[in-house]
Amino acid sequence: MEDRTPLEAIHRILPEIEESRQKCKTIREQLKDVTGQNEDFQQLQEEVKELTNKRAEGRKLLMADKDYQKVNADLEDERIKLKDLQEILSHYLVSYYNETKKTQITDPTGDTRQVILSARIGKTEAGAGSL
After folding, report:
1. Three-class SS string for 45-109?
2. Cα-only R_g, the chain
3. Across the chain, how many H-helices and E-strands are there?
4. CA atoms within 13 A on the CB side of 45
5. Alpha-carbon dihedral 35, 41, 46, 52, rounded to 10 degrees
6. Which band of pLDDT confidence, cut at 50, 70 and 90, is reported for residue 130?
7. pLDDT tens digit sequence for 71-114
8. pLDDT of res. 72
9. Domain limits of the chain?
10. pTM strictly above 0.85
11. Dist. CA 1–CA 17, nearest whole Å
């Protein structure tokens, strides 16, 4: 990063990221064109489409089953709970890091675990100023 400040480095890399996104978009379009010209692939895609329709029919049958509905609802509740718990843990880990500057913790079983901090930039806000 040479002698740049973190903000200068962020400003330098953001245009590179956008350029790479645009290149990926162009390459994806090229791939779509190539796959559209491959007859074997197109034939298999039709078969996949038929199977997808059959799967949708199967799902409709399952959705009408009361036992399936209950177990599926239980699973969704547990997924929501897990997501909430993971978000709470994330906040605690950030607080722990801010207080101690340590990137390791010892869990309740005595194992040492790495604290992985992650950050990413969000979408632009309407009317917001520059970084």
Report:
1. HHHHHHHHHHHHHHHHHHHCCHHHHHHHHHHHHHHHHHHHHHHHHHHHHHHHHHHHCCCEEECCC
2. 24
3. 3, 2
4. 9
5. -90
6. low
7. 999 999 999 999 999 999 999 999 999 999 999 999 999 999 99
8. 96
9. 1-64, 66-118
10. no
11. 16
